[in-house]
Specification:
Elements: E1 2-8, H1 20-33, E2 36-41, H2 44-50, E3 62-66, H3 77-89, E4 94-97, H4 108-114, E5 116-117, E6 129-135, E7 149-153, E8 160-161, E9 166-173, E10 176-186, E11 189-194, H5 206-220
Parallel strand pairs: 1-2, 1-3, 3-4, 4-11
Antiparallel strand pairs: 5-8, 6-7, 6-9, 9-10, 10-11
Amino acid sequence: MTTTLIVSGGGDFTDPWHPFEATSELLRDLLADEGHEATVTTEVIRTLTALGDTADADLPELVVINAGNAERPTAGDDDAIAGLERYLATGRPLLVMHVATTAFPEVDAWEEIVGGRWVRGTTMHPDWDHGTVHVATDAHPIVAGIHDFAIWDERYSYLRVGAGIVPLATQEHDGIEHPILWAKHYGGARVVYDALGHEPRSYESEPHRQILRNAAAWLTR
């Protein structure tokens, strides 16, 4: 069994628009089917900070962050990212979901870890609708054999994306292809960002589910 920690939105890391409890449970169930012993916590700051003091042997084999912060910095942000960086320094992987690009808004290291950020006043999404995901099928094992597909979801546009990512899927808005799925390395750690997953309907999409299975396999192999 792969020990997996899902850090889900709670407290300052929630908002009125994202059903984190439901989507984190769907992630837990999907990963459980792939052999993960997954635990869900909503104690974002405390949990990530504690990674900095946890013995290597007791660290989870995968951390998933499915939380957001659309409003303001939170006391403890720096400590939380320091703990996460210590975890990543062991070479263990990270899966970042959907609105988590809004979290830790004044900690530059978070953007470096993820490979991108939601920028207030620039990043946006059209009304939640039925859109098409354009898949770079031959770009990476995470998307091998997966082709363009339609999905009900928020289509993030104009994320600030850094160098060093491997774009795996995009969506078109205003005549521009916007990256919404990528893989990267942060030091010796593997990182995947998936901008899909706004609400449970996203997890009904079999191509999206397969992407998440493949991502978990690539992250933890």
